Amino acid sequence: LSQELDASAQSLTSAEAVESFRLHWLGRKQGRLKAISEAWLKSAPVEAKKQIGQRFNQLKAEIEQRLESASTGTGSGALDAEAIDITLPGTRRALGAEHPLIKTMHEMVAVFQRMGYSVGVGPEVETDYYNFESLNFPPGHPARDTQDTLVVANQERKPLRDRLLMRTHTSPVQIRTMEQQPPPVRIVIPGKVHRNDAADATHSPIFHQIEGLCVDTNITFSDLKGTLDHAMKEFFGSNVKTRFFPSFFPFTEPSADVQISCPFCGGKGCRKCKHSGWIELLGCGMVNPAVFGFVQQKQPAYDPKKISGFAFGMGVDRIAMMKYGVSDIGQFYSGDTRFLEQFA
Ligand code: PHE
């Protein structure tokens, strides 16, 4: 029997072989062990029962031990290789991807960092003072209506300047930055802003802006034009041209809207520029002396007789939509992985 066991254990080289070995010896209905116990144990004379029983148990233990060593891999090499096949591809974890808005924001911020700008941030829940008053939107001024402000509830008992709202632009961080540090300042402020706009293909109540602020002695409108022209060429390609139109913002004077020649058709006209050859991208202007006046309450060095500056603001979502050919702004905020996977 031992020889028979040795011989049949030779072939334990696969999971199937181990299973048929188990069935052959230990099978409940037709296993060898069952047959042995029936043929010998039951019919043995009483005196021999003890010895035969011992031998029987020994055999059973041997069979089990062989099964054990075969399945834990201390048996044949072939079975080892089957238990852990190190050539099989592993289970991969899905890698996340940078969100297209964050990616666009990083790339634009990097353009300004290479020009010596640093990066600043500020709160999304703002006070009326920083979002409006210090930016030269007086209480009741009609320019406030252009901002579609979402306000925080139950603020009526506070003085107007302390009432909380969702910032409608990143410009309040201009004031916060200047209050914290004397001139010179060169800073870009990427961030999320909020407006009470109904969501459609081109509007989202949450979107992103990048603000810029440069304050020093003798900063001129030429510096503003040169800086933005260079930044747009860096970001969109050196063939891109810029042009400036008169505009209005309470916190800049003079103010301008900036268009770039369409980077997709080279200005010939295509769907992305609505066949005009130009795309409007920025608001900007020279910092209004009245704004320096508010800052001076905390930082007297912002004396409009001694320093000057420019500021600009651009919408990130629109730039990302054009760059990646996204036709619905809502995709950026849907969290739909079928959309986001395309940027991996
Ligand atoms: N804050 C303005 C807006 O949201 C943009 C802007 C920023 C304009 C800085 C001029 C200077 O519309």
From TrEMBL:
Enzyme class: ligase
Reactions listed under catalytic activity: tRNA(Phe) + L-phenylalanine + ATP = L-phenylalanyl-tRNA(Phe) + AMP + diphosphate + H(+)
Cofactor note as given: Binds 2 magnesium ions per tetramer.
Cofactor list: Mg(2+)
Domain of life: Bacteria
Major place of residence: cytoplasm
Binding residue positions for Mg(2+): 253
A GO MF label: ATP binding
NAD found in the keyword field: no
Cellular component terms per the entry's GO annotation: cytoplasm
Keywords of this entry: Aminoacyl-tRNA synthetase, ATP-binding, Cytoplasm, Ligase, Magnesium, Metal-binding, Nucleotide-binding, Protein biosynthesis
Places the protein is found: Cytoplasm
All residue ranges annotated as the Aminoacyl-transfer RNA synthetases class-II family profile domain in the record: 111-322
UniProt-listed GO biological process terms: phenylalanyl-tRNA aminoacylation
EC number(s) given by UniProt: 6.1.1.20
CDD domains documented for this protein: PheRS_alpha_core
InterPro entries on file: aa-tRNA-synth_II, aa-tRNA-synth_II/BPL/LPL, Phe-tRNA-synth_IIc_asu, Phe-tRNA_ligase_II_N, Phe_tRNA_ligase_alpha1_bac, Phenylalanyl-tRNA_Synthase, tRNA-bd_arm
Pfam families: Phe_tRNA-synt_N, tRNA-synt_2d
Gene3D superfamilies assigned to the protein according to its UniProt record, in alphabetical order: Bira Bifunctional Protein, Domain 2
PANTHER family: PHENYLALANINE--TRNA LIGASE, MITOCHONDRIAL (PTHR11538:SF41), PHENYLALANYL-TRNA SYNTHETASE (PTHR11538)
Similarity section: Belongs to the class-II aminoacyl-tRNA synthetase family. Phe-tRNA synthetase alpha subunit type 1 subfamily.
Record note on quaternary structure: Tetramer of two alpha and two beta subunits.
Name this protein carries in UniProt: Phenylalanine--tRNA ligase alpha subunit
Taxonomic classification: Bacteria, Pseudomonadati, Acidobacteriota, Terriglobia, Terriglobales
The encoding gene: pheS
